[in-house]
Amino acid sequence: MKKQGGFTLIELVVVIVILGILAVTAAPKFLNLQDDARTAAAEGLKGAMKGAAGIVYGKSAINGTEAVSASTVTINGQNIATVFGYPAATSSALGSVVSGLGTDWNLVTGTAAGTVGYSASDNPTTASCYVSYTQAADRNNEPNVELQNCTN
C-alpha cells in the first residue's frame, strides 16, 4: 500500500495567512497607482503649459506687444489673446497653444478670476487634482502654472 503525500490543513492555513498579510501590506501601494498616474500626467501638462507660454511670449516679443496688457498674436493661423505677452487665462487661448488640451483634459469649475484649471478627472472641481494657469499680473511677471491638490 502506497502512502499518499500532500499538504496538511494546518500547512495550507498557514500559507493562506501569510499571503493575506502580504496582500494587506502591499495593496495600498498598488491601489495608489492611479493617483500617481494622474499626478504624473498633470506634471506633464504643467510643463506643456509653461513651454507654450514661452513660445507665445517669444512671438509677442517679436511683434513688440510683450509689454501690452491685452493683445493678440497669430500662431499657425490662430489668433491667441495675450496678457503682457503670455496667453490669457481662457480655455480658447490655452487650447490654441497646448495640443490636446480641449480633448484630453477637462476644464475645472470654480477657479478664481484670471485663472483657468484643467484636470484628468471626469468631474473636475477645485477639490480634485488639477493644473492651474494664472495669467501674468504685470509685464514683470510670468504666468503662474502649478499643480493643485495633487498628492505625490
TrEMBL record:
A Pfam family the protein falls into: N_methyl
Membrane-crossing residue ranges in chain numbering: 7-27
Domain of life the protein comes from: Bacteria
Signal peptide span: none
Keyword Transmembrane helix: yes
Keywords: Membrane, Transmembrane, Transmembrane helix
NCBIfam families: IV_pilin_GFxxxE
Protein name: Type II secretion system protein G
Gene it is expressed from: xcpT
